[in-house]
Design a protein that fits this description.
The protein is mainly α and 409 residues long. The chain has 15 helices and no strands.
């Protein structure tokens, strides 16, 4: 039987991280810079995923280009599903992480009960490949949730956040070299490549800002980052297509090359995985206890654009601007009167309406939208909405709400 998955070599992990990075950056570019919106972007990539997956399943053997194109698309799709839960449905990241962990366990459980193997070196039938891609989709969603939750807990910058998944992957590699179960090692590393690739993308695309708690990156932007990594992926896929260095012709050959190892070493390595989990948990608990500000929202704004009162919304429909002003005014009124619950609820509704209108407003005037969005984020931060900090004083809330109302004319 022909194997449908490439041989796991250094090339496999290099291109996997490249695909994850470009998936994150490209989705952000379409969602934010083109003004398509999060939900619409998810629908687009879901449709594309169905098409490329159908092609991949139809093929009878591993072919580099369609396989890695499917990985790129599934990385974007899984990420968008988690982002919708977080940004649109306001599901806490710890809940998303728990739900996707359970879902992945269910996928693996059913896969094992049916096929008696979870090894990617045995993906030689349609059922096994279907389970494989379902597991990949869930791992990307889980990696997104756990990665974002880690940043929420720690407030680490994009550059610093690269070190945790990188260190964990290195530790897993050492345990695998020692004799850990190769299937378990593979899937643990596979999950971790998602936050690693996404953090690399955020680090490259994020602006160079010196303010505490704000992102510090290389300011390449999501479009440039996407182009760079798409080029690297294309070059790597061309190389693999020519050299066939990642091809395992048959399932039997792959199975023989990855025979079961030493059970004693596997047990020792399993204990090592447990210690690694405990150490990681301790690190996150310690980092969460340190003074920090939550990470800035994912955006491609290089700076807050300052504009004269009313200019930023001049090209927006008056009815939409009026609805936004009404909610901002309601929040301001409640903040002044000491109705903290009402002020927070109005600010939450303001955020939801602003996000819902992004797809229609941003294309009309991207500069104006960016200016209002920057001030809107300052307002939300005072209420602890989309930020890990506790709500600020009513005076600070009034200040930022007044600034927002001034910006909207």
């Amino acid at each position: 039987m022909l194997n449908k998955v490439p041989e796991v070599t250094v090339w496999f992990w290099v291109i996997k991280i490249l695909c994850t990075t470009v998936g994150e950056s490209f989705a952000d570019w379409i969602n934010m810079k083109l003004g398509v919106g999060l939900v619409n972007t998810a629908w687009i990539f879901t449709a594309v995923f169905v098409v490329v997956l159908a092609i991949q399943l139809w093929l009878k053997r591993y072919v580099p280009f369609p396989y890695w194109l499917t990985v790129v698309v599934v990385s974007v799709t899984g990420t968008l599903y988690t982002d919708i839960l977080t940004d649109q449905l306001n599901v806490p990241l710890w809940i998303s992480s728990a739900v996707f962990s359970v879902l992945l366990a269910v996928v693996f459980g059913v896969w094992w009960l049916r096929e008696r193997t979870l090894s990617i070196h045995s993906v030689a039938t349609l059922p096994r490949e279907s389970f494989y891609w379902l597991a990949v989709l869930v791992t990307f969603a889980l990696g997104t949730a756990t990665g974002d939750w880690t940043l929420e807990l720690t407030g680490w910058s994009p550059g610093a956040s690269v070190l945790l998944p990188l260190g964990l992957i290195a530790a897993i590699t050492l345990l695998w070299k020692f004799g850990a179960n190769p299937v378990l090692s593979f899937w643990l590393a596979y999950i971790l490549t998602r936050p690693l690739g996404a953090n690399i993308g955020d680090w490259l695309a994020s602006p160079k800002v010196a303010q505490p708690g704000e992102p510090t990156g290389l300011a390449l932007g999501t479009f440039t980052t996407s182009l760079i990594f798409l080029g690297l992926i294309l070059a790597t896929v061309v190389y693999l297509t020519v050299t066939r260095s990642d091809v395992t012709e048959t399932y039997e050959a792959a199975h023989a090359a990855h025979a079961t190892g030493d059970p004693r070493k596997e047990r020792v390595a399993l204990a090592g995985f447990g210690l690694l989990a405990v150490a990681t948990t301790g690190l996150l608990v310690w980092a969460h206890g340190q003074p920090h500000v939550g990470p800035a929202p994912e955006a491609d704004n290089t700076s807050a654009v300052q504009m004269a009162p009313g200019v930023a919304v001049k090209k927006f429909p008056p009815a939409k601007v009026s609805a936004l002003r009404t909610l901002a005014s309601t929040s301001l009124k409640d903040a002044r009167s000491g109705n903290a619950k009402g002020a927070h609820a109005a600010a939450q509704s303001l955020r939801d309406l602003w996000d819902a209108d992004q797809a229609s407003l941003q294309p009309l005037d991207n500069t104006g939208w960016t200016s209002i969005d920057a001030q809107m984020d300052k307002v939300l931060k005072t209420f602890g909405i989309d930020h890990s900090n506790p709500p600020m004083s009513p005076a600070q809330q009034e200040k930022e709400l007044n600034a927002l109302l001034t910006d909207m004319g």
